[in-house]
Design brief:
With 628 residues, the chain is mostly helical. The protein contains 33 helices and no strands.
Length: 628
């Protein structure tokens, strides 16, 4: 397993089982693509705890558009947990036959086997390492059993306990993972497929345990072989597992992008409809994982022609466009300017898809989409694709948007009765505000009432995107937002106080309140006391970035006008300030002025007693940084 020449090696961080592997390989297929020799959640913390790893409040356009919530779920579902099935009436030779033209029927029922595996998963989550002394001897015996069905069930059990026992499996994984990788070549298709799934459950350990050539690279190589397996169920399991590995590995995949893409695109020409959905997910996940590293001419040339060829073959009525659009959204974000040759025709077709699916059918007119009429899924996917172009191209997208009907169509989508359409529409408003705000200014007055009306947390995903879009607009239009600030604050402040609300919604709401305070501090400052505690608690755990900077700069401006609004929750303010790893110099100076000012307003003996009651990490950070 070799890296691309000249590419730095990735760096990682963080029971003997016999070799049961069979002799089956897919060497012939791999030779066809040149791969025979190379394979080139943080909960809110109380103020008595140390801030943990930073996590962002901002999300990508796809995450905003695809985030599951009360309005429904979206996206491709990967292979279901505990989904391997046995049909002992069918010989294993039959399962090894080459693919036929039609997909096999998928067994979906919840059966005793799945219930048992799910039960083991739950037990391992509750009792963790306590089950291992009892369980591991049983598993070791079954993994050595002559009956392949027994071995397969033991591999399923190993995967089932992964989440609950991960911290305590480290002693066994250095031997267990290579053995599981070897079972990916087993003669039995069901063992190959369940091993794909089991290994995906340990993907984080594999990806981040050095050296990469010992665990990570062999897994990549064998999973890519299984992606080209002759058995469709194995293809599905391997493709799904590979997408999970991509998520965990991230930039560790960069040295191997050329052979990974060659293999995935070879499979793209081989797969039929059902597995093609999972392959789209794997390609999109790869783009999300490595980002701009994908934007090399030699990689683009492997990736894009097959996708665009399929794009051109599918009609506007073909629902096969939907997963392709989702995949291209991630790809266009990652490629950025590398997508330039395809941007204009893709953009034009997205507008066409939106327009034909938001326009009500006229009397006597034939219904589109094979007689089913307008389909909001086409609108959602097309809006998301335009968001992907906005993220990838930034200001360079403005000429395309300015000379088109996008803004008018976007307004229609913002008022749609379909929550999913509104969700994607508001995500696009925010992305356009970031990339080319000038195109929105002519419709700004029309859009704001819709944005305000949909700051309703009963529809979490719609509200989340609307709140985020308002914040992006605020920092771009500045004082032009003032006429709407009172209405916006009347909607946003109560959201901060609602119990058990979606974490992302609270974070985006807090950021937008801060940004409104930046452009109109006199209008927001009087309400400081109503939101300062949940505001600080929400933003203490997000990563340091420009959105967090805007929010805290706005808070500082509000505190200047209403210092009394923070008094009752001063410790929460200190906690939020201490959460910064490295604040920009200007913002850091604002923090210093505010903290020194509060200290000066309290008698020295009282300050010492009060400050001494703060958690140690807050005092140590603030004293070191600001001398208080």
């Amino acid at each position: 397993l070799e890296q691309d020449p000249g590419t730095p090696a990735p760096t990682g961080g963080r029971s003997g089982f016999g070799d049961m592997a069979g002799a089956g390989t897919v060497g012939a297929q791999l030779q066809g693509v040149g791969l025979q020799q190379e394979l080139a959640t943080v909960e809110r913390l109380g103020v008595d705890q140390q801030p943990q790893a930073q996590q962002g409040a901002s999300v990508t356009a796809e995450e905003r558009a695809q985030a599951p919530g009360p309005d429904g779920e979206a996206g491709v579902t990967r292979a279901e947990d505990f989904d391997a099935e046995h049909d002992e009436s069918v010989s294993d030779d039959e399962t090894e036959d080459e693919e036929e033209d039609e997909d096999d029927d998928e067994v979906l029922e919840w059966n005793l086997r799945k219930c048992a595996a799910s039960g083991l998963d739950i037990i391992s989550g509750l009792f963790k390492e306590e089950i291992l002394p009892t369980l591991l001897p049983l598993l070791q015996a079954k993994l050595s059993d002559q009956n392949w069905l027994v071995r397969e069930s033991a591999i399923l059990a190993l995967g089932a306990i992964a989440e609950g026992c991960m911290e305590h499996m480290g002693t066994y994984l250095p031997q267990l993972v290579p053995w599981l990788v070897s079972t990916l070549s087993d003669a039995k298709a069901l063992i190959r497929s369940i091993s794909c799934w089991a290994l995906s459950r340990y993907a984080r350990w594999v990806a981040h345990t050095p050296p990469p050539e010992q665990y990570f690279q062999p897994l990549l190589q064998e999973l890519l072989k299984r992606v080209l397996d002759s058995n469709k169920r194995v293809q599905e399991a391997a493709c799904s597992a590979f997408a999970t590995v991509e998520e965990e590995a991230g930039m560790l995949l960069v040295p191997f992008l050329a052979p990974v893409l060659q293999n995935l695109m070879f499979a793209y020409g081989k797969y039929q409809a059902k597995n093609l959905l999972i392959l789209y997910d794997a390609i999109g996940t790869l783009a999300d994982a490595v980002g701009s590293a994908l934007c090399k001419p030699e990689l683009v040339q492997v990736l894009m022609p097959p996708l665009i060829n399929k794009w051109n073959l599918l009609s506007d009525d073909d629902r096969g466009l939907l997963p392709l659009l989702e995949c291209l959204t991630s790809v266009s974000q990652a490629l950025g300017h590398g997508f330039r040759d395809y941007a204009e025709p893709v953009y034009a077709r997205c507008l066409r898809l939106i327009e034909r699916n938001v326009r009500p059918p006229q009397p006597g007119e034939a219904l589109i989409n094979d007689g089913h009429g307008p389909d909001p899924e086409f609108v959602v996917c097309a809006l998301d694709q335009v968001s992907g172009l906005a993220e990838g191209f930034g200001a360079e997208l403005e000429p395309l948007v300015a000379n088109s009907s996008l803004v008018q169509l976007l307004y229609v989508c913002m008022a749609s009765e379909e929550a999913d359409v509104r969700q994607s529409a508001y995500a696009l408003v925010g992305d356009l505000a970031k990339a080319c705000p000038g195109v929105l200014l002519p419709a700004f007055g029309q859009m704001m009432p819709l944005l305000i009306a949909h700051l309703n947390p009963e529809h979490v995903s719609v509200c989340n995107n609307a709140a985020w879009a308002v914040g992006e607009l605020a920092v771009k239009v500045g004082t032009e937002m003032r006429p709407y600030v009172n209405e916006l604050i009347a909607q946003l402040v109560p959201i901060m106080s609602r119990p058990n609300l979606n974490k992302s919604l609270l974070e985006n709401t807090a950021i937008t309140i801060g940004r409104l305070g930046l452009v109109a501090p006199d209008l927001v400052a009087p309400l400081l006391e109503q939101f300062i505690q949940p505001w600080c608690n929400s933003l203490r755990n997000i990563r340091d970035d420009v959105e967090k900077e805007h929010a805290f700069r706005g808070l500082c401006e509000m505190i200047k006008l209403n210092p009394q609004g923070v008094i009752q929750h001063f410790v929460h303010l200190c906690d939020a300030i201490a959460s910064w790893q490295e604040a920009p110099a200007e913002l850091n100076e604002l923090f210093r002025q505010i903290l020194v000012g509060y200290k000066a307003s309290v008698p020295a003996e009282n300050w010492g007693q009060y400050y001494g009651s703060f958690p140690d990490y807050i005092r140590s950070r603030l004293t070191e940084r600001y001398g208080i």
